[in-house]
Amino acid sequence: MLKVNQLMTAGALALGALASSVHAEDTVKVGVLHSLSGTMAISETSLRDVLLFTFDEINAKGGVLGKKIEPVVVDGASNWPLFAEKAKQLLEQDKVAVTFGCWTSVSRKSVLPVYEKNNGLLFYPVQYEGQEESQNVFYTAEAVNQQATPAIDYLLKQGYTKFYLIGTDYVYPQTTNLVLLEYLLSKGVALENIGGGFKKDDSGKIISAGKYTPFGHTDYQQIVAEIKQFSAGGKTAVVSTLNGDTNVPFFKEYAAAGLTADTAPVVSFSISEDEFRGLPAKQLVGQLGCWTYFQSIKSPANKAFVARFKKWLKTTTVPGIVKEDRVTCSPMVLSYDGVYLWKAAVEKAGSFDVDKVRAALKSGLSFDGPGGKVTTQPNMHLTKNVFIGETTAKGQFKILEEFKDVYGEPWLLGKFKAK
Amino acid sequence: MRTLTRFFSINLLFLATLVCASAAQAPRDTIIEAILAKDKARKIELIGSLVGESDEAIKPLLTAWKEDGLFVYQTPEGSVSILVMLAGEKDANDAQAALRIDNGQPLLDAAGKPVHLVGGDLTAVEHDAELRGAMKNVLDLLALATPDVVKRIQAIQAVGFSQDVEKIPALEKRLALETDSGARKSLREALAVTRLKASDADKLTAFNELKDLHSLSSYDLIRTAMRDAEKAGKPELAEAGAHALKAIDLHRTKINFFGTLFRGLSLGSILLIVAIGLAITFGLMGVINMAHGEMIAVGAYTTYLVENIFGTGITIPFFGFSLPIPGIHATGWFYQTYFMVALPLSFLTAALVGIALERSIIRFLYRRPLESLLATWGVSLLLQQALKLMFGSNNVQVSSPSYLSGNWTIDDITFGWNRIFVIGFAGLIVFGVWLILTKTSLGLLIRSVMQNRNMASCMGVRTERVNMLTFGLGSGLAGLAGAFISQIGNVGPSLGQNYIVDCFMTVVVGGVGNLAGTIYSALGIGLVDQSLQQILLNPVLGKILVLVAIILFLQWKPSGLFVTRSRNLDD
Amino acid sequence: MSSLSTRHKVELIAAGFISLFFIVIFPLLNAHGMVSDFTINLWGKYLCYALLAISVDLLWGYTGLLSLGQALFFSLGGYMMGMYLMRMIGDLGQYHKPIPDFLVFLGWTELPKFWKPFSSFPFAFSLILLLPGLLALVFGFLAFRSRIKGVYFSILTQALTYGASLMFFRNDMLMGGNNGFTDFKFILGHDLRSATTQRGLFIVTAIVLLLVYTSLRLLSHTKFGLVQRAIRDGENRVLFSGYATAHFKLFIFVIAALIASIGGALYVPQVGIINPSEMTPDKSLEAVVWCAVGGRGTLVGPIIGAISINSLKSWASRAAPDYWLVILGGLFVVVVLLLPGGIVSIPARLKSLWQRVTRQPSA
Fold this sequence. Notes:
The complex is a heterotrimer of chains A (419), B (571) and C (363).
Chain A: H1 2-19, E1 27-34, H2 41-60, E2 68-75, H3 80-94, E3 98-101, H4 105-117, E4 122-124, E5 137-139, H5 148-157, E6 162-168, H6 171-186, E7 194-195, E8 198-200, E9 206-209, E10 211-213, H7 221-230, E11 236-241, H8 247-256, E12 266-268, H9 273-276, E13 288-291, H10 300-315, H11 330-349, H12 354-362, E14 366-369, E15 372-376, E16 382-391, E17 397-406
Parallel strand pairs in A: 1-2, 1-3, 3-4, 4-5, 6-7, 6-10, 6-11, 11-12, 12-13
Antiparallel strand pairs in A: 8-9, 13-16, 14-15, 15-16, 16-17
Helix pairs in contact in A: 2-11, 3-4, 11-12
Chain B: H1 2-23, H2 27-36, H3 40-48, H4 58-66, E1 70-74, E2 81-87, E3 95-100, E4 116-118, E5 123-124, H5 129-143, H6 149-161, H7 168-177, H8 181-195, H9 200-213, H10 219-231, H11 235-285, H12 292-310, E6 314-318, E7 321-325, H13 332-336, H14 338-360, H15 369-391, E8 407-410, E9 413-416, H16 417-439, H17 441-451, H18 453-458, H19 463-488, H20 495-510, H21 515-536, H22 539-556
Antiparallel strand pairs in B: 1-2, 1-5, 2-3, 3-4, 6-7, 8-9
Chain C: H1 2-31, H2 37-60, H3 70-89, H4 101-105, H5 121-145, H6 150-169, E1 181-182, E2 186-187, E3 190-191, H7 195-220, H8 223-233, H9 235-240, H10 245-271, E4 273-274, H11 281-294, H12 300-319, H13 324-338, H14 346-359
Antiparallel strand pairs in C: 1-4, 2-3
Helix pairs in contact in C: 1-7, 2-7, 2-10, 2-11, 2-12, 3-5, 3-10, 5-10, 7-10, 11-12
């Protein structure tokens, strides 16, 4: 009797698989693959929200090639094997035309083989470490030279001579810091002025630069004491690739030790307006950030975008969407840009077929997004403007400098030679 | 002849006054001229001429200029441009009172009424890095006399590190007048550091001075000067430099030692507050409460709510319905008391949640410790989800009150106020719990039920009530811990998960149900963890080694540090 | 006595049918396209989870030791298999270099020494058994020798898992760090991404599950099994009867670790990724949930529990992602409080309920 249970479940699953392969004629299925629960839900639910908003916006204007977008939203639950399973589901069962998704590099790396095997297309919107160029992923994300190196340029121009590297222990901070190490050395910064510690392999080559803490680490006392001693001589900046909620205990400890944006400013690459909502903004005034979009951009396109998104939030009936205190940030805007770029590519190619769409993307399409004009590149990355901003007490960024039309370059390791 | 000399002397005097008058051009006018000058070199020269002036208008004007606070105002009738500065509170239209730069008086319109302008509508006077550098020069030297000690020390350091030999007289002059000991030390350091760029004899005195001062901030500059001396082939200088560096290294070791001690104590205190509630519930009832972490989260969220109620109120996404919670708009010192109010409220809320949990689920699981572990884990998932649906899955901002921000620094060792508070409070809590357990009747009942539940019940003790109250006490203590954790870490739905493993370790090492054991264990784990972090300079390795050490420790003492002896074979 | 053998017979027949279905019919259906590749892959995963649940049950239901660290052994087996699979990628990775991708972007130019032997499958296979086995041996020896039991033991295993996950999350362990291992291409010469290989892996998993089930079934009928259950029910008395309970417990602990490890080794090629989040204490607790919900103290319970809860999870993360954790937590509380015997005990309870109802009128 118990085993019959199993038989029935097996049969039901098989039937279900058959049934779901039939879909309506006048819609096109589009996958949304993000973590709606778990540690990454904090950041990724905003991307789901902005994607649904974009689909509604496009559908209201007639859809893509006359077909309405039908979103298939799946929850990766911050569980990387589950991401792979969901990706398989989207491609093999739902047969989506394109997927917008992933945040952490782990999630992207775990779904990459699935997309390559099934020749799917994934749009990836979150700043990452580069060193990748898959033909099945379009990276609207910031490459290291569209976020990290411009920030370093700005700091060097302001006269900072010592840099302390700190990050969360995973591929994005590790790789970014190795690139930054080469970049700093190539700009004449001495090795002893780069803080955080180095790890060398047997031949003496540096394979890890900076201080690393795991996800969810809460005890920054000793590290902040170290930063205080390192920055005692002045002219020190902290380069932080700490991810997500480890920033809160770090900054609280930093403030308690008496460090401020005047004595040792911190430029954080993973804090956007969205993450700011959970941080003590009043204690973080004057710290730096670098993205390809800030909500405080004063362009009419951006103001209209923010207004439309907030209006959509008020009227949407999708369950689980938080409506209070919403902000827009770079990954959200890059998701938005990604959908429109895909639409443009489909319309140029005249078909949803992945190979044709890819060719259209590589040919160079432009879109006037809220962050300015973005243009697709043949190496599956995006040319966009880069902004350096300073945090304000309200959780927004005051824009200090803008670099226009920076070409996204993923292959940076080994490119900067020391003087 | 005399009339001629008189004539000439009068003329000379007149000329001299003219010259003096023009030389004594008011700093305001110099600044205006600098703003209007077209040539950048001229601008920098004019700004530079302000060095040594002590007009109190210089600082606000230059600071405003640097921060985009000086504007060009075009009068509505004519084409007259007046340079103004905006000051005062912003009114409902975002406008502020405008002050003329040339005389510091409010700008008046044609009818003689003060004009209010909106900063966003005006063009700010421009500046760039070079101008800012020139302004900084002036401001730094001005700042040597700032009334605020902290700013004064910062200014002194900035002047010192620029290693500009020309500034030595200004620094020496200030040293003669300076009374504050911290500022005196900074001045001596600044003088010594600047002298590193002067003659060799000066360098030698500088090295020795810096050795005596053992100031951390001059380390890099000493090192550079020492290297220069080595390259130039001056061994005595290089040796003096090496001695200075060694003195600073020694000082650093001392700082690290005391710093580690303090950090270990503070971490231990946090572990103690977090674990003491668990020790009580575990010891009393043999129930492992995996939802203990969520009690901590409940306390932290209560603090968040109290902070916002004292402020401007907040809207929470309560299970999908936006629930607005009004604020009482408190200000000043009354607002700062929010933390004091939050502490007992956190205790109460968590205690209530704990009691509810006990009445509904735990009381069925008293003789089944493994099942209680699992059931409470299920409850912890439910509570996490409930918190997520009540407050959103994002972390929420909780700020510290002013008396808990900042630190107390002696001799370069930093003691953060919030951590001092935690250590103090942990002591208070331990004392309080000890009082309850030993001096109150509730405590007596708790201890008797802990020793032999059945016997106590036979003696007429209402064990059910005791259970309920004890669980409430344990959860309430967790809530208190949550209030503290909100000051130093994240507040989010999964806050509890970060602390639960450490909590268990502390309780198990200390010996279940034992207050003294928990104290020693918490402090011990805290100190060992921080020491390992300092020695290995790696936060994770330290933690892993601590875990391994605990596992090995338990081989030696399987029931923890202090064992509650009982005659029962199965205990 | 005869009722026992009829029950025994029914069980044998049922087990035979189910195994036939899984090992033969299900894959045949897949080969003819009636069951999708996705489904067979999913069920392969479920069966691996069933192995993990069995290892938990072996310790908890049969010996009374609640181990919150079985996911660690599961992951270790997975990692050993993963290392072999990473070596099998050769130079087909993203960088087209002969060393794994994650080493390339960590700056390494040649393979670290401890990676080199993993290109041989026999070596990897022996390590799948040896590494978790040795760890279980050492840890178990230390724990059982000092008579650590009950809740302390559970918390210790939790600490062990937590410490191990912290270690594996570090990138300088050179085990993939947070990313773990992924992008596998070949196993034993077969292309991992082809449907036939996946089907083959499914069949192997089903066979292994059957073997484990039968051998444990046989074990529980021996004297060893009796002593095991006796330890669960009253360890002190077993001690007084002259048995060295620590040895028995150690033996079972190592066996359970090996079973979990094999489950992990089969899991990784089917799921395509292994990373340290598989060895966090949360995962172990989930395995305990499967065991509790299915019915501990039986061999069939964990299998049912693992399959049903994971199916529920796959469905819920699609249909009601916000409420999955509520469902899981609620389910757990309900099962522990009201249904301690799990799903497997439902027929017996229904039967007794029925008997009570039908017996009423006679009074």
